């Protein structure tokens, strides 16, 4: 068995506003494992400024993996536990080597017989840009829209009010993602305003790391709270359990690239189910390679909620996609 990797820079079609600033390109690494004439492809989708493995020794750890690719699965998992995006790429490559073609998790989804509902994502920007995106998503047939908020709450609140006047909660599910943009006191006010508009949920209302503050909000909130960045960097399963027991959120958001791949996501799902906490899966600016693998994994989790999966359409130089969007349903092109 041999392995190699290469860096790849994804170019955004238009600059995309996030809580990390405006993005023009997204760095990623493609891992290839070969054995007996077969090969498996995976994506080590590091997210600079957000991943815990955004470290100076990232590429040297990738080189180490390629040199030690024949080592035992559990040994590699332990060695890579602080590099969740590298482990994620390794898991993909091993699965793809096993199943071949463009498969990671064969199912009725990959046979083209089933699909998944996803939410439409509205990027941060001025009010005109956000409204333009919303009209586009509604015309495409989305029934669940997620808006990034926390930059200009007055304008963002106005957009939500307009949407809710036009569409009832039964017609359009609205989610918001604050990326830790509010203080605890601000968040209490915002949570009530969101409740008045029948908003489904808010992701990460305050910055990650304040477990007691988040627990206080979750205990009193009139709007469901979902943990997102809060999960990043929590590696030990006992600490994961401690986090959920302390905060008691209504939902958690699973981003395999950031939380230890499929095995890391499985640990969170198992604990969430144990504590009756809801969850859904979200992509994190992966290329179509990682996105394809995440979509196949997500389908097998049998969640009935709209998932936060991208469609690969953000970049000018993305890889060929196996996914196709029809309305708000994601299909695998057989």
Question: Uncertain spans, ≥5 residues at pLDDT below 50?
Answer: none
How far the N terminus sits from the C terminus, by CA atoms, comes to 29 Å
Work out the helicity level: 25-40%
Determine the number of helices (DSSP H or I, runs of at least 4 residues).
10
Describe the structure concisely.
The chain has 334 residues and is an alpha/beta fold.
Detailed description of the structure:
With 334 residues, this protein is of the alpha/beta class. The chain contains ten helices and 13 strands. Strands 5-6-7-8-9-10-11 form a seven-stranded parallel beta sheet, with helices on one face. Helix 8 crosses helix 9. The radius of gyration is 20 Å and the shape is globular.
Protein traits:
334 residues, alpha/beta, seven-stranded parallel sheet, 10 helices, 37% helix, 23% strand
Topology of helices and strands:
Elements: E1 2-18, E2 21-35, E3 38-44, H1 58-67, H2 73-79, H3 84-99, E4 116-117, E5 120-122, H4 127-140, E6 144-148, H5 153-166, E7 173-177, H6 184-196, E8 201-203, H7 211-220, E9 224-227, H8 237-247, E10 251-254, H9 261-274, E11 278-281, H10 288-300, E12 323-326, E13 329-332
Parallel strand pairs: 5-6, 6-7, 7-8, 8-9, 9-10, 10-11
Antiparallel strand pairs: 1-2, 2-3, 4-13, 12-13
Helix pairs in contact: 8-9
């Amino acid at each position: 068995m041999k392995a190699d990797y290469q860096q790849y820079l994804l170019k955004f079609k238009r600059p995309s506003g996030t809580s990390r600033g405006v993005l023009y390109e997204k760095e990623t690494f493609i891992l290839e494992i070969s054995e007996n004439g077969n090969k498996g492809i995976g994506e080590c989708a590091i997210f600079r400024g957000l991943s815990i493995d955004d470290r100076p020794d990232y590429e040297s750890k990738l080189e180490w993996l390629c040199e030690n690719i024949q080592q035992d699965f559990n040994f590699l998992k332990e060695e890579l536990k602080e590099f969740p995006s590298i482990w994620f790429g390794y898991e993909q490559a091993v699965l793809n080597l096993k199943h071949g073609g463009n498969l990671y998790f064969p199912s009725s989804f990959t046979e083209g017989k089933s699909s998944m509902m996803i939410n439409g994502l509205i990027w941060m920007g001025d009010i005109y840009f956000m409204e333009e995106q919303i009209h586009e998503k509604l015309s495409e047939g989305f029934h669940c829209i997620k808006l990034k908020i926390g930059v200009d709450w007055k304008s963002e609140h106005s957009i939500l009010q307009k949407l809710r006047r036009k569409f009832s909660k039964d017609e359009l599910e609205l989610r918001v993602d604050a990326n830790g943009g509010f203080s605890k006191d601000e968040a209490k006010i915002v949570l009530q305003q969101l409740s008045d508009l029948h908003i489904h949920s808010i992701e990460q209302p305050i910055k990650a790391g304040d477990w007691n503050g988040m627990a206080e909000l979750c205990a009193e909130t009139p709007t469901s709270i979902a943990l997102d960045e809060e999960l990043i960097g929590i590696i030990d399963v006992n600490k994961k359990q401690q986090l959920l027991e302390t905060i008691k959120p209504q939902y958690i958001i699973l981003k395999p690239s950031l939380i230890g791949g499929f095995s890391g996501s499985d640990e969170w799902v198992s604990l969430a189910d144990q504590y009756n906490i809801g969850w859904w899966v979200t992509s994190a600016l992966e290329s179509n390679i990682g996105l394809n693998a995440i979509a196949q994994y997500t389908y097998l989790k049998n969640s009935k909620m709209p998932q936060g999966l991208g469609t690969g359409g953000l970049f000018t130089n993305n890889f060929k996609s196996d996914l196709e969007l029809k309305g708000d349903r994601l299909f695998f092109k057989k």
